[in-house]
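Subgroup meeting minutes
Present: P.N., E.W., G.H.
Scribe: E.W.

1. P.N. recapped why we're keeping a running log of single-chain structure predictions: easier to compare across weeks, and new members can see raw inputs and outputs side by side.
2. G.H. added today's entry (264 aa).
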Amino acid sequence: MNDEAFVRPPRAGSDSLFGQVTHRLAVAIVSGALPAGALVPNEDDLRAEISASRTAYREAIRFLAGKGLIEAKPRSGTRVAPRAAWHLLDPDVLRWSLSSAANEGFIRDLFELRGLVEPGCAKIAALRRTSAHLARIEEALEGMRVSPPYTEEAMRYDLAFHDAIFDAAGNAAIAALKDVVVTTLLWSLRIQTERTLESFSIPLSDHRRLYEAIARQDGDMAEMTSRILVADALRDTLSAFLKSKGVPAPGLGEKPKATELAVK
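Output recorded in log:
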């Protein structure tokens, strides 16, 4: 994965006509503006907002059907598919959902998935990592340390850190979930840009502890530290998300120390 892929995960290009049509329809679907069972607007309907050509429209329909968002049935037309049919963990669908229809429940669901996947991945990575893997993790950690907090540069190194751990685990099935983590993590980091240098020091120190556990090949400590990282990331993400909505963050309270989380 190259640097650009860390900053901008794979997506349907929004600059092309196909991308504009795809984005317009996808956002309408995931936001609920087009509910399940609703007829999908045709190219003539869309022309009031964008210049939707027939070719771009057909490509967009095929693309969204491939992601489970729409379905075409004989004598019924092209309609919005029920949410249960969506490929929710597809990076594009996930990105559309986070940008257009994020809510506290969905955020918790995604971090619950991270909590199931990443700690186990970190444990395996600690046991299987090579010196080359460790060098990549260390390089990403150093990049996080020297980059201005919550900038695109710092985010790129943060994503590189997690990417290297997934690779170090050497498990193709676990690696298939990497894009879910990358997309969720990038969205999470981008809504925390108002945080301070002091607040950045806490996740940075947790990343360092995770690196050190992997360096020692201490699988249990790597697993526990990763679990703490995910728990703290959920707390920080919900706080930033609710603040952006002008809503207090009930139940979040003061962030517990790593040692307090470790004994739970």
